[in-house]
Amino acid sequence: MTVSSAVEPPTAADSQQLAGTDSTSNKGVQFWLVFLGLCFAGFVAATDSTIIFTALPTIANDFGGQSQYVWLGNAYVFASTAIQPLYGQVSNIFGRRYPMLMSVALFALGSGIAGGANSTAMFISGRLVQGLGAGGMIMLIDLIVCDLLPLRERSTYLGTVLGACAVGSVLGPVIGGAIVTRSTWRWAFWINLPVCALTLAVMVPFLRISSRRSPSWVHSVSRIDYLGNTVFVGSITSILIGLVQGGVVYPWKSWQTILPIVLGFSQLSASALTSGLNILPINAFMIPSGAVAGAILTKTGRYKPLHWAGFGVLAISCGLFSTMSSSTSTIAWAWFEILAGIGIGLPLTTQLPAVQAVLSESDTAISTSTYSFVRSFGFVWGATIPSIVFNSRVDAMLGSITDTKVRAALAGGGAYSYALSVKDITDQTLQQTLEVYREAMRVVWFVGLAFALVGFLLVFAEKHVEMRVTLETEFGLKQAKPAEKQITNKSKEGA
Q1: Domain at 169, CATH number
Q2: What phi and psi values does residue 209 have, to the nearest 5 degrees?
């Protein structure tokens, strides 16, 4: 994908509005309000990505759409993943403000459609619109943070936004379970509307980002690489469809249902609320670890030690997870999760600044959109690879189960959907089945260990680059107008 560089030179007024060319030490009320809006957007996008976990079975049952279960759950993933690079290009052409506002508006519109859906097709359409909005929100949150702060400071603020996202991810399944239990599943989507309204209420007046202007609207539109984007989105969608259809061949329903099993936190028979609490140690330590890593990077400017530590601790946690069995105590696996949270958190907020250290500020949009896309795309692979390994290992061990009915239920990827029924098995068959699950999970954790070790070794190939402490960008916050400054000064005097 290419972007034409022919644009109208900035006027004198525009030059005066380019923010942060000297330093970013001045963070006024406008900065903090915009940053708060970004946190709201991250929270609502993360909550929606997990809230459907517990609501989806009820939704499929209401629509009689069990045969389309995989599409009900993954339409959102398709749209949000494939659209991110296009947002990066559009934000370079039209600036950050309008793509961000459009993303929040699309997300709200999709939430309303999905919540009010009276058919499977309408629900899937709503989820697609939601995904188009969420993809832009996810990418543009990181991009705007990078626009407002110099390279050395970015990881600290990215960690704060990550904290808002993590809180949303943790609360999502719990909120979804509570809504399904006490009310209609439709509120799982309608609940997004007031948060989106609050986000827009902050961003519309305060998210004023400078940008270079094209000579005309026609010129701006002509700079979009339509062919490249069409080919790219089409190819990525095809890959995603292939990955998700694998869940039909191996009927684990949808990739979201893999996570509680692969992570080993759902105990097979845990409720939605219990599952949310079981993964709390990871999220509780991932957020502070990311914040600490961001602070260290801001202070020292060195990211390689943080990446080594992160992948090293993650490898240790995967090794410990592989030792788990039905007799593993709660304290033990909670500590394994804590280590995993630390291992994930340390590189999570420091990878994007490391990528951008070797690039100029003009490449911020491209680097951010690419990083955001790879992260989302990797999440799909991170669910698919363990499922393939798990299913293969279960099939290989079916001979150790004497009960033919149980054996048939577990075959061909049925182990995922059968997990909740394991509690109904008794005596010798129960022990045989649990051993099959334990062994299959052990191999999955070995694969995770291998990936963590590869990451650890790749850090040796990273090049250390001094991180910039000043910001030179044409996409900073516009300076307040004289009238606004007078109002601000009067407010200060009155205080």
Answers
A1: 1.20.1250.20
A2: -105, 130
Q: Which of 93-107, 223-237, 332-346 has the lowest mean pLDDT?
A: 223-237
- Which residues form the domain of 269? 15-494
1 in any annotated domain: no
The segment with the largest mean pLDDT, out of 5-9, 23-27, 214-218, is 214-218
Residue 131 tokens read as 């995904």
CA distance 323 to 255: 25
Nearest to 364 by CA among 463, 291, 471, 469: 471
Q: Rounded distance, CA 206 to CA 71, Å?
A: 37
- Domain count of the fold of the chain: 1
Is 138 a member of any domain?
A: yes
Whole-number Å distance between alpha carbons of 281 and 288? 11
> Please, what is the average pLDDT of the chain?
74
Q: Would you call 469 exposed, middle or buried from its count of C-beta atoms within 10 A (0-12, 13-18, 19+)? A: middle
CA 288 to chain centroid, in Å, comes to 17
10 falls within a domain? no
Structural tokens at position 164: 């808002």
List the one residue out of 138, 134, 238 whose CA is nearest residue 192: 134
pLDDT band of residue 265 (cuts 50, 70, 90) is very low
Query: What digits encode the pLDDT tens for the residues 280-299?
Result: 677 678 778 888 888 888 88
Phi, psi at 299, each rounded to 5°: -75, -45
209 forms beta bridges with: 477
Residue 330, class by beta-carbon neighbours within 10 Å (0-12 exposed, 13-18 middle, 19+ buried)?
exposed
The CB-side HSE value for 325 (13 A sphere, CA atoms) comes to 7
Q: Cα(454)–Cα(436) distance, rounded to whole angstroms?
A: 28
Confidence of residue 416 (pLDDT cuts 50, 70, 90): low
CA distance 204 to 346: 34
- Record the tokens describing residue 429, joined without a space: 């068959």
Residue type, 378: G
Q: How many CB atoms lie within 10 A of CB 221?
A: 12
Distance from C-alpha of 73 to C-alpha of 65, rounded to nearest angstrom: 11
Q: Are 152 and 356 in contact (CB under 8 A)?
A: no
b/e map 390-416, b = 16+ CB within 10 Å: bbebbbebbeebebeebbebbeebbbb
Burial of 311 (0-12, 13-18, 19+ CB in 10 A): buried
Q: What is the pLDDT of residues 86-141, one digit of tens each?
A: 887 788 778 888 899 999 999 999 999 999 988 888 998 898 899 889 888 988 88
Is residue 199 a contact partner of residue 77, using CB atoms and an 8 Å limit?
Answer: no
Residues 70 and 57 sit within 8 Å (Cβ to Cβ)? no
Per-residue pLDDT at 316: 94
User: Is the pLDDT confidence value at 244 over 70?
Assistant: no
The answer to whether residue 85 is domain-embedded is yes
